[in-house]
């Protein structure tokens, strides 16, 4: 029996995508070859790549000023790539908003390349809100945010307005709703939540921000080199890009990101409603900052945690244990999570 998978990532994708991907591994488009044994420079794969890029541009309405790349190394590689590509060699300075573990890791890497000003942080309350009302120094090379905090269950509902280039780690909420890409200098995301399998990293970068640091950037870390090579400076993650392309096609067929957003809002409302009305559970995230992707909650009586997890397992619900730094439970309800699965979890909570 297929489980209700609430994993934070790698995570659920549509069943239809899994089926088409499986078929392509056996025989890609009746070529008599597997998708994963053909050259990345073959016309068949180049067509896949071009389609994936075109769908990203279409779904997110990416302006001409920005380039779309599929790289490797995960979002973690982008922690340093964003910094090395944007921070000036002489007197470089960047502003960071610290909203949890992933922001902190981005900050650690950026410090290798210049001065980092943490302009706001919600560390004081174990990251259960999104800081607001801070100012961003106008002489910063860029400001970095983590749009959705996978571990702590918080999400930016509005992005900072600033003249400084805005860089966002959107690993765990990309494609969950429309965003105005023109407002961002760089958006990056590891694929393994709403996009595709682990192994590909989506980067959307504003071209005129590049080439201005005065640094020597190693080739593999240089966005300009990847742009010139159309993500094929080295062998790209062909399987991950193919599955991402299938999932982008699926999102388009659902009616695009407006429709995806509506579905996500409805699912999150169902679950938060249960948490708020069920006397056994609590969510301690500031209401206006609650993530629509990662719903964290605690049992008021923590001694019953194991019992609740056992009840979930009994109902075919997997991966709801919370991250060790928060405790309790986390239900990741990415795009592909059906309402029926959310309802299955709610049913267990009600019975409990
Ligand atoms: N940023 C966020 C918001 C994440 O959720 C994750 C992974 N869960 C990462 C960064 C790290 O991504 P990767 O493992 O692809 O390097």
Task: Report what the structure shows.
With 352 residues, the protein is α/β, with parallel strands linked by helices. It has 9 helices and 14 strands. It has helices spanning 15-26, 43-60, 74-86, 101-110, 223-228, 238-253, 256-277, 305-314, 339-351, and strands at residues 4-5, 66-71, 93-98, 115-121, 142-146, 148-149, 154-155, 166-169, 186-190, 201-206, 281-282, 294-299, 317-318, 329-332. It is globular, with a radius of gyration of 21 Å. It starts with a strand and ends with a helix. 4'-deoxy-4'-aminopyridoxal-5'-phosphate binds at residues 9, 74-76, 102, 146, 150, 169, 171-172, 190. Pathway: Amino-acid biosynthesis; L-serine biosynthesis; L-serine from 3-phospho-D-glycerate: step 2/3; Cofactor biosynthesis; pyridoxine 5'-phosphate biosynthesis; pyridoxine 5'-phosphate from D-erythrose 4-phosphate: step 3/5. Residues 5-345 form the Aminotransferase class V domain.
